[in-house]
Design brief:
Elements: E1 6-11, H1 15-26, E2 30-36, H2 40-50, E3 54-56, H3 59-63, E4 70-73, H4 80-89, E5 93-96, H5 104-117, E6 121-123, H6 131-143, E7 147-155, H7 179-194, E8 198-206, E9 211-213, E10 219-221, E11 227-234, E12 239-245, E13 252-260, E14 263-267, E15 273-277, E16 283-285, H8 292-309, H9 317-336
Parallel strand pairs: 1-2, 1-4, 2-3, 4-5, 5-6, 7-12
Antiparallel strand pairs: 7-13, 8-11, 9-10, 11-12, 13-14, 14-15, 15-16
The protein binds NADP nicotinamide-adenine-dinucleotide phosphate.
The site of NADP nicotinamide-adenine-dinucleotide phosphate has 23 residues, from helix 1.
Length: about 350
C-alpha cells in the first residue's frame, strides 16, 4: 500500500487524457487533482469524467492548485518549454512528454529550470518501456557485442489519406509536429539505450499527403513530415537505419533488427523476439505485450520512485537531452543534405 500518493495535474487532452490520466487514476502511487486543455469546456468535461475538482484552460490556475506536487506536460512540442519551466519554477516535479523541446537549446532550458528548482524531472520515452522493446534491449546487451548493422522500421496507415486523421498541430512544423517527434525520437532513444553513442547522422524526410482535412472540414496544408529515413554511424563502428512511413496503405507491426559482431536480435511484426550468439541458432520468445498503457504505468511508477525514494529518474532528463541532440542533428542533416555530428551533451546535471 502506498500511503503518500503524489498529487499530480495533467496538461493535455490527447495522450495526457487518454493514456496518462487513466493510469494515474488507477495507480495507488498517484492522486490526480486537475487537468488542463486549451478549451475550457473540454477541460471541464475531462475533469468531470475523471472526478477531478478542477478542469481549466488557465495553466497558472492549474499550477496554483493547493497541495499540487507534480505536473505531466503532454501538450504540443513547441509549448513544452513554457509549460515545463513554469511548473518547475513553482517547485513542482515535471514529467515532460518527448521530445523535451523543439530543439536542444529549449531542452537545456527545461533541464536548467528543473535543476535550479531542485525538483524531479523525467521524460515520457514510454516506448522503450514496452515489454517488447525492453526485451530487445536486454537481449542486445546480452548477445550483440559491437553493432554492425541495425534497423528500426515502422509502417503505419493512419496518415494514408487526407481524411484518415484530422489536421492538428502534429501536421504543423511550426508547432513542433511531424512523425520524427512522434516516433523517431522513441526509436533513437531505444538505440541510444542499447548501443554505443551515435557519432553522425544523415537524414531525409518527406510529406506524402500534403493536404489534410480539419475538424471543420477544410483542407489545410501539411508542413511536417509523415515519412523519414535516418542513417546512423555509431561511435566505434556500425551503421543504423531508422525509417517510418505513416501513409502506407497496408499496416505492419514494428520490425527491429540488430546485428552485431557477437550475435543478433530481432523483434518481428508479431511482437516476438529472436536472439542468438554467433554460431548458434536464433531462439524465439514471446509474443510480448506491446501495450502503451502498461509501458506508461512503468514511466509513472519510476517518476513516483524518483520523487518519493530519490531513485534516479527513468527515463531521465539526461536521456531526453541525448536524444534531443541527435534529433537536432537529424533536422540539420535533412535540410542541409549532409552528415551531421550530434552536439555532445553534458550528462551530469
Ligand atoms: N509518450 C508517448 O508515447 C506519446 C504518445 C502520444 C503523444 N505524446 C506526446 O504528447 C504531447 C501531446 O501530444 P497529443 O498527441 O496528446 O496532442 P493533442 O491531442 O493534439 O493535444 C494535446 C493538448 O494540446 C492542446 N493543443 C492542441 N493544439 C494546440 C495549440 N496550437 N496550442 C496550444 N495547445 C494546443 C490540445 O487542446 P484541446 O484539449 O483543446 O484539444 C490538448 O489539450 C506531445 O508532446 C507528444 O509528443 C507522447
Amino acid at each position: 500500500m502506498v500511503n503518500d500518493p503524489v498529487k499530480i495535474a495533467v496538461a493535455g487532452g490527447g495522450y495526457g487524457a487518454k493514456v496518462a490520466l487513466p493510469a494515474y487514476l488507477e495507480l495507488e502511487e498517484f492522486e490526480p487533482l486537475a487537468v488542463w486543455s486549451r478549451r475550457p469546456e473540454r477541460a471541464q468535461e475531462m475533469a468531470g469524467q475523471a472526478g477531478l475538482a478542477l478542469g481549466t484552460s488557465d495553466f497558472e490556475e492549474l499550477l496554483a492548485v493547493p497541495g499540487l506536487e507534480a505536473v505531466h506536460v503532454a501538450t504540443p512540442v513547441i509549448t513544452h518549454v513554457p509549460f515545463a519551466v513554469a511548473a518547475a519554477e513553482r517547485g513542482l516535479h515535471v514529467l515532460c512528454e518527448k521530445p523535451l523541446a523543439d530543439d536542444l537549446a529549449g531542452a537545456h532550458r527545461i533541464a536548467a529550470a528543473i535543476r535550479s528548482a531542485g525538483v524531479v524531472g523525467a521524460v515520457g520515452f514510454e516506448l522503450r518501456l514496452k515489454e517488447t522493446r525492453r526485451r530487445v534491449i536486454a537481449r542486445a546487451r546480452e548477445v550483440l557485442g559491437r553493432p554492425r548493422m541495425v534497423s528500426v522500421s515502422l509502417v503505419q496507415t493512419d496518415h494514408a489519406d487526407a481524411s484518415s486523421r484530422p489536421h492538428t498541430w502534429v501536421h504543423d512544423a511550426t508547432m513542433g509536429g511531424g512523425r520524427l517527434q512522434g516516433y523517431g525520437v522513441h526509436d533513437l532513444d531505444m538505440l541510444l539505450e542499447a548501443l554505443p553513442p551515435i557519432e553522425a547522422v544523415a537524414a531525409a524526410t518527406e510529406i506524402g499527403v500534403t493536404m489534410r482535412t480539419s475538424d471543420d472540414d477544410h483542407l489545410l496544408p501539411v508542413t511536417a513530415e509523415d515519412a523519414y529515413a535516418i542513417l546512423l554511424r555509431f561511435r566505434g563502428g556500425g551503421l543504423g537505419v531508422v525509417n517510418l512511413v505513416a501513409t502506407a496503405h497496408h499496416d505492419r507491426g514494428d520490425v527491429i533488427e540488430l546485428h552485431g559482431d557477437e550475435g543478433s536480435v530481432r523483434l518481428d511484426a508479431d511482437q516476438r523476439v529472436w536472439w542468438g550468439r554467433a554460431g548458434h541458432e536464433l531462439q524465439c520468445e514471446g509474443p510480448f505485450d506491446n501495450s502503451s498503457t502498461e509501458a506508461f504505468k512503468r514511466v509513472a511508477r519510476n517518476f513516483w520512485a524518483a520523487i518519493r525514494n530519490g531513485d534516479p529518474p527513468d527515463p531521465s532528463l539526461e536521456e531526453g537531452l541525448r536524444v534531443q541532440a541527435v534529433f537536432d542533428a537529424v533536422r540539420i542533416a535533412d535540410v542541409e543534405r549532409r552528415w551531421v555530428h550530434p552536439e555532445p551533451v553534458t550528462l551530469v546535471l
